[in-house]
Amino acid sequence: MSAQTTKHQAAFYTSLENTIDDLREAGLYKVERVLASRQGAEVVSEDGRHLINMCANNYLGLSGNESMVQASIKATEEFGYGLSSVRFICGTQTVHKQLEAALSKFLGTEDTILYAAAFDANGGVFEPLFDIEDAIISDSLNHASIIDGIRLCKAARYRYAHNDMADLEVQLKAAGAAGKRHKIIVTDGVFSMDGTIAQLDKICDLADRYDALVMIDECHASGFMGATGRGTHEHHHVMDRIDIITGTLGKALGGAMGGFVSARFEVVEMLRQKSRPYLFSNTLAPSIAGASLEVLKMLSTNTELRDRLHANTAHFRSEIEQLGFTIKPGTHPVVPVMLFEATVAQKFAARLYELGVLVSGFFFPVVPMGQARVRVQLSAAHTTEQINTVLAAFAQAGRELNIIK
Ligand SMILES: *Cc1c(COP(=O)(O)O)cnc(C)c1O
Predict the structure, then answer these.
(1) Is the shortest distance between the CB of 219 and ligand 1 below 6 Å?
(2) What would the pLDDT profile of 268-279 be if each residue is shown by its tens digit?
(3) Lesser CB count within 10 Å: N end or C end of the chain?
(4) Is the pLDDT of residue 1 over 70?
(5) Which residue, by CA, sits nearest to atom 2 of ligand 1?
(6) Are 395 and 320 spatial neighbours (Cβ–Cβ below 8 Å)?
(7) What is the phi-psi region of residue 92: left when phi exceeds 0, alpha when psi lies from -120 to 50, beta otherwise?
(8) What is the average per-residue pLDDT within 377-386?
(9) Banded model confidence at residue 216, pLDDT cuts 50, 70, 90
(10) At 313, is the secondary structure helix, strand, or coil?
């Protein structure tokens, strides 16, 4: 601490240091890995190591892709670097309107509004639409940004046990008994820790029975879930039964940043008038809008990337089980490889790093006690050869640590 520190400053900064120390001691301190390369199937770490990357949300492999780089340069040349404005003053360009229209077409909705991030979309979607007379019924494992967005809104909150349709029904009945005007069920389309796909067919049936609307957060689904990659609503054949879709441009759909809400005209119109993260935050950079538009063009003409991602996922899921590892069953490219104990998960991830594989270990309190794991995320950019190299590293580290025989 510098010499000029006053007493009240010292008290403040010391308390921060103590809290950080507590995080370190509790094993909750987050260290950021520094990459010296583009994002991709293979990355180079700061110290020059080449690693096969199995922990990015780069589902379609577009993040470091050369065609994306060129599309963003082209959009920058045409529309400039930035807008220095919010949308409603002088920050809306043709490329933003085109992207909003293309997203609506892709998702099967009427209209779309762009945000700087999906965090902002979820943070700004509830407050303009729902009031003290209304009810929001939310899955208990919904993303942090949904939780924050609901907090910013005056509607009554009902939480249902994760993915539990019986409890959802209980909560819908409770909201009905409380005489709530509008009810909306909110769920992640796919939950990122387990790769669990929300039961949207059942959720929509319950919504019909109890006069509720349905909102899904498609951050881990847009671009690759469903037969043509439209999302979880396509996967479950309920494309015409969802009221509000939120999503990100920062995962499968290119991987830079940006978010959106896609819904009926009335919803989007209200958000343009009232949604605070939209009204009081800068326009999405034209490079991102232009490149995202190219992504949607590509995904609308063929399903090649989506198909490769699912083939890679099926291959990895089947082979890792053959090796004797326990995984959470499913079909999503998020594959939790269960190690149960936190220390095992930490050692395993560290050993894989030495063997040239980048995965992230998760343990309590990020996942429940005794449910420690490494979470593998497949990408369309992975070659079969790379996946087999990863499987061999899992086998070696697994035998060394007595996880498998
Ligand atoms: C990643 C994620 C977000 C946040 O997306 P950003 O565009 O990065 O802000 C929101 N919801 C879910 C479910 C996510 O996985």
Answers:
(1) yes
(2) 999 999 999 999
(3) C
(4) no
(5) 219
(6) no
(7) beta
(8) 98
(9) very high
(10) helix
Q: Which part of the chain has CATH 3.90.1150.10?
A: 29-58+303-401
According to the annotation, is 251 in a ligand binding site?
yes
Owner of token pair 């499968």: 252
**3-state SS class at 379:** coil
Omega prior to 365 cis, within 30 of 0: yes
pLDDT score for 249: 98
| Catalytically active residues, by annotation | 192, 220, 251
Spatial distance between the Cα atoms of 363 and 337, rounded to a whole number of angstroms: 12
State the average pLDDT over residues 68-92.
98
- For the segment(s) 66-300, the CATH number from 3.60.21.10, 3.40.50.720, 3.40.640.10, 3.30.930.10 is 3.40.640.10
CATH 3.90.1150.10 is the classification of domain 29-58+303-401:
yes
**pLDDT at 393 > cutoff 60:** yes
Q: Which of 115, 150, 382 is nearest to 250 (CA)?
A: 115
- The gap between the terminal CA atoms of the chain, to the nearest Å, is 52
CB 145 less than 6 A from any atom of ligand 1: yes
Q: What is the mean pLDDT of residues 30-42?
A: 95
Check residue 2 and give its pLDDT: 61
Q: Residue 176 Cα, ligand 1 centroid: separation in angstroms?
A: 30
Q: How many angstroms separate the Cα of 396 from the Cα of each of 346, 351, 378, 390?
A: 16, 9, 20, 10
- If one residue of 39, 103, 114, 119 were mutated to test the ligand 1 pocket, choosing by the most ligand atoms within 8 A of its CB, it would be 119
Tell me the three state secondary structure of residue 80: coil
